[in-house]
Design a protein that fits this description.
- By secondary structure, the protein is of the alpha/beta class.
- It has 2 domains: about 240 residues, P-loop containing nucleotide triphosphate hydrolases (Rossmann fold, 3-Layer(aba) Sandwich); about 100 residues, no CATH class.
- It is built from 11 helices and 13 strands.
- Strands 1, 2, 3, 4, 5, 6, 7, 8, 9, 10, 11, 12 and 13 form a 13-stranded mixed beta sheet that branches.
- Strand 12, helix 10 and strand 13 form a beta-alpha-beta unit.
- About 40% of the residues are buried.
């Protein structure tokens, strides 16, 4: 199962422009108008913005889908825990009908109930997770159930203005801003200038790409870092056997393998595996957030099938002994990104404490 021709054509024109992109420009103008009206409504106070009692980090993007937000979110959560924070995660729960009440949990969560990305984050980090399309509701539910959470990390939500935030991290990749146009004529959720207003930009690069965003970059706004994903561990989805990257290569390095991925950029996953030296004889790109109601792997003849961790949370019930989950490490060109984030968040927490302890104004005096 692959992307249709129309979608492939649109993806190409999102990068270079063309007749279809030109035809869709009037709709992009409407997108831009909606963005401006929404931002004005929040700026003027016509629509409410929830300010959480703890600092909030939003990890998002302006390029629609597939830039690598979830690996960055997981890395942020792990880094904050290492620095003494007690993080919790909120997310929309993409593709899941949540209903009026948020859902929350931790540990092993059902992708059918929470969405594949929140389920993956919960599994990989073991921190509390809450989901709801209205992120403030998810945040309130998270803090109500786990009152010891002292920082909220929002997976996606850069455009979700009802959620106040202290730090914005935008994740992009080698596609940049494409043709620079808003949806649907281009790939952008917001104008390219939005990137000038975030606090940090992380560029997800393939292993063979050269770095041009972080080398020698000065501290400032935005803070820039490249990231790259490399396989670290392979886990058989049926037996649970876990092999390091080196042990997997020693056993299967010469074996013809297949790989499948239901993510925004499947080829990035395949390229990572080839760069690691694996012999991929078949690849199966699937739509992002593929549901796996049935097995798509029957057409693959290889002895082993490599899948992403995001896909694995939905494939456990398939019972295919050939499936190996690829767990990847996220390497940052500027690891000090997380020290910088820690400083920003501690300052935000101190400001909250100061506001909370300030005495009320004298009677009859208007602030």
């Amino acid at each position: 199962m692959t992307m249709g021709r129309g979608a492939t054509l649109l993806q190409r024109q999102w990068q270079t422009g063309g007749w279809l992109s030109t035809l869709l420009r009037p709709l992009s103008c409407l997108t831009g108008l909606a963005i401006r009206l929404r931002r004005r409504a929040h700026a003027q106070g016509w629509r409410k913005t929830w300010r959480a009692p703890v600092p909030v980090v939003v990890v998002g993007n302006v390029y629609v889908g597939g830039t690598g937000k979830t690996p960055v979110t997981i890395a942020v959560v792990r880094a904050l825990r290492e620095r003494g924070w007690r993080p919790g995660v909120i997310s929309r729960g993409y593709g899941v009908k949540i209903g009026p009440a948020p859902r929350s949990g931790r540990g092993t969560l059902s992708a059918d109930d929470f969405g594949d990305e929140p389920a993956l984050i919960a599994q990989e980090t073991q921190v509390p997770v809450a989901v709801h399309p209205q992120r403030p509701l998810a945040g309130k539910a998270l803090l109500a159930r786990w009152p010891d959470v002292d920082v909220i990390v929002c997976d996606d939500g850069l455009q979700h203005l009802p959620l106040g935030r202290d730090v914005e991290i935008a994740v992009d990749d080698e596609r940049g801003v494409g043709n620079g146009l808003l949806l649907p004529a281009g790939p952008l959720r917001e104008p390219p200038a939005r990137l000038d207003t975030v606090d940090a930009i992380v560029t997800n690069r393939s292993m063979h790409a050269t770095s041009d965003s972080a080398a020698g970059a000065a501290l400032g706004v935005p803070y820039r870092s490249d990231m790259r994903l490399t396989p670290s561990r392979y886990v058989n989805l049926v037996s649970g056997e876990s092999l390091s990257a080196a042990d997997f290569m020693a056993r299967y390095g010469a074996t013809p393998l297949a790989a499948a991925a239901g993510i925004g950029q499947p080829e990035r996953f395949f390229s990572m595996l080839r760069h690691a030296g694996l012999n991929l004889v078949q690849t199966l790109p699937l739509p992002d957030h593929y549901a796996y109601h049935g097995s798509p792997f029957d057409s693959l003849q290889a002895e082993g099938v490599l899948i992403t961790a995001k896909d694995a949370v939905k494939c456990a019930g398939l019972g295919d002994e050939r499936l190996w989950t690829v767990h990847a490490d996220t390497a940052f060109s500027r690891p000090a990104l997380f020290d910088w984030l820690d400083v920003r968040l501690r300052a935000a927490a101190a400001q909250r404490r100061q506001r909370h302890t300030q005495p009320p104004p004298p009677p009859g005096k208007v602030d």
